[in-house]
Amino acid sequence: VAKIYHSPKKRAKESAEILGDGLGCHDLLEKEYLTPNAPPEEFLQELKGVRDHVAVVSHLPFIPNVLITLFPDKISSPLVFPTASVAVLGYDDGQWEFLEFIVPDPV
User: Could you give phi then psi for residue 63, rounded to 5 degrees?
Assistant: First the structure.
């Protein structure tokens, strides 16, 4: 992971720092458009120009809204997205692909 995008909210910033330490990535980018109720279009537009692997730390309902926007024929609203879950996406030749959905085990 070359960069980690995160919202300006405290918990997202802390999670991004922890993730960055674990991945050895310290290029953390705070973005206002990753807040919980932000529309996903600005975020998706910026990602089109990114050629590296990136991680995104954000909130509900932002991340489910991104997935619904990207995959309207495959994902219905409302999308159940448990806290601390991970959606792994790929982007190749202008096409987004849903690769994996990881849900943490309950403690």
Answer: -65, -45
Structure tokens that stand for 7 in this block: 């919202």
Whole-Å CA distances, 99 to 56, 69, 78: 15, 16, 20
**Distance between CA atoms of 98 and 42, rounded to whole angstroms?**
19
Distance of CA 39 to the CA centre of its chain: 13
pLDDT at 32 (0 to 100): 95
Residues comprising the chain, all counted? 107
Supply φ then ψ for residue 98, to 5 degrees.
-90, 115
Decide: residue 102, CB within 10 A, 0-12 exposed, 13-18 middle, 19+ buried: exposed
Q: pTM for this one?
A: 0.86
In the beta sheet, which residues pair with residue 96? Answer: 91
For residue 45, the one-letter residue type is: Q
